[in-house]
């Protein structure tokens, strides 16, 4: 795990299981219809319980680049923020990915949350290159912490494997 202070707040990267995080919110890499079958989404519902899927079903559709929030069921986190990132090849992926992160951070602030943990949104089944995802997520988080009045004091990236971590570390070291 590594961390840096930005504007008195903490930016952190690590390898780990996001379903085990006790941050106020964890971010789910969601699809537009919030159907949580596989990947990060499936793991979150399996561990947190079907209430997460039930609340997601009530929300329904979430546009790419946006986010929605549900309770976290029996997870350690209080909330799950469902961020819909882009699929590689659909066009304008970097902008959509940035918007998904900003939408998540806005929800965290709206709910007066202090800490949030993100996965590498869109880098799994959605096929976005891990180096691009790392660049966009780190850059967006740094810009947010530098320029936004927010209740969020900790933004962390909880990454599934060492390969993804290396891409995030490369961007993290540029800060």
Automatic annotation (TrEMBL):
InterPro entries: Macro_dom, Macro_dom-like. It holds the Pfam family Macro. Gene3D superfamilies: Leucine Aminopeptidase, subunit E, domain 1 (3.40.220.10). It comes from the Bacteria. SUPFAM superfamilies: Macro domain-like (SSF52949). Residues 1-175 form the Macro domain. PANTHER family: GANGLIOSIDE INDUCED DIFFERENTIATION ASSOCIATED PROTEIN 2-RELATED, MACRO DOMAIN-CONTAINING PROTEIN. This is O-acetyl-ADP-ribose deacetylase. It comes from Thermodesulfovibrio aggregans.
